Amino acid sequence: MVDKADKAVVLLSGGLDSATTLAIARNEGYQCFALSFDYGQRNRVELEAAGRVAKTGGAVEHRILNLPIGELGGSALTDDAIDLPKASEFEDSGIPVTYVPARNTVFLSMALAMAEIVGARNIFIGVNAVDYSGYPDCRPEFITAFENLANLATREGVQGDGFRIRAPLIDMTKADIINTGVRLGVDYSLTISCYNPLTDGLACGVCDSCRLRADGFNMANVADPTVYRSVR
Amino acid sequence: MVDKADKAVVLLSGGLDSATTLAIARNEGYQCFALSFDYGQRNRVELEAAGRVAKTGGAVEHRILNLPIGELGGSALTDDAIDLPKASEFEDSGIPVTYVPARNTVFLSMALAMAEIVGARNIFIGVNAVDYSGYPDCRPEFITAFENLANLATREGVQGDGFRIRAPLIDMTKADIINTGVRLGVDYSLTISCYNPLTDGLACGVCDSCRLRADGFNMANVADPTVYRSVR
Lengths: 232, 232
What we know:
The structure is a homodimer. The first copy, chain A, has about 230 residues and is α/β, with parallel strands linked by helices. Chain A has a single domain (about 5-190), classed as HUPs (Rossmann fold), CATH 3.40.50. Chain A contains seven helices and five strands; from the N terminus they run βαβαβαβααβαα. Chain A has helices spanning about 15-25, 45-55, 105-120, 140-155, 155-160, 175-185, 210-220, and strands spanning about 5-10, 30-40, 60-65, 120-125, 165. The first copy, chain A, has a five-stranded parallel beta sheet, with helices on both faces. Chain A is globular and about 55 Å long.
């Protein structure tokens, strides 16, 4: 366990993975500063979920920063001109169309700024290389490279003890993640993973993210608390 | 010279260094996409200067993105609670109080997102390790680490030819920079370097940045076009 005064910044999307990541950081004893972004994504419902998760998950603070990367376009998650794929239309190999250019680099950069300001030396991010191996910025080598950068880029890195970028889910299956979260008391009914929840806040049940989530509950032998709009 | 279709993103602050960097990128033949940030800094006058520099410097596009890193506080440049130092009060060693946590990391991350979207493979940044050696994120090892990160983090890095982070001023003195810019036709009267230009848009003449700029023109034997508010 860490010292009670030790602080961590936790990137929180409102999805299943980041809710579990927050629970892991809390379980290690960190004072957690949750950080979410409004980046013009279609799924603003996620931000409401992030607020619920931060509150029930014991974060001492939850900040939502406006990031205009949606204005730059270029991804199905932020650009209305690009249709969202159904699971069946997803590429089996390569990088999904839901890839957002440099997203995790931008998110970690902002988390790094916040960490240096609040005096946190650990930054938690819920990336996972198993189920989402198509995203280049969810791989262990990306995390290592960012940690290296963080410790060259900052006062804390140069003059202090430095930063650690923590990605505790990176090698877990979705079932491992869910089992870990259940053990730590995460209420997954508060989270949303859907790429396209519309205004009713319900998960679509057909997108790639819904499919991975449902499969994860299945494999974990945990009842799926998600209310899906479509019969799957 | 590069192919005429080759594109570059150029970080543009409205100061002397980034104006010179844009001129260097244009001189190499790139189609330049200039990128500036409104990050709650005191010197919004810089953004107006950036607009003038982008226009006269031949950028094909100039985008200003809102970045809320000022809200995070922690620097004399963004936080009204911290007094700006005069040159005489500056620390002779260590990191200046004008250091903004993770600033260049955040800026390069956004430039990387923009570069991948517009199809640019070169990102130019006007950092300089000679006159501002106190900033950790102005050092060559920071630039190298970011380039490494960029090529792990992105589709272009993994599947394409990758990105180059270009910092052409990094080893130049301020006089070298000014002489280079003059040779390339930069109109330095359009730029502003002052940390505290107030609403009249005039340089204060006493801050560290004003001092470095004036010394640079002196050393370069170039007439300083800056109108200073104070007699120096």
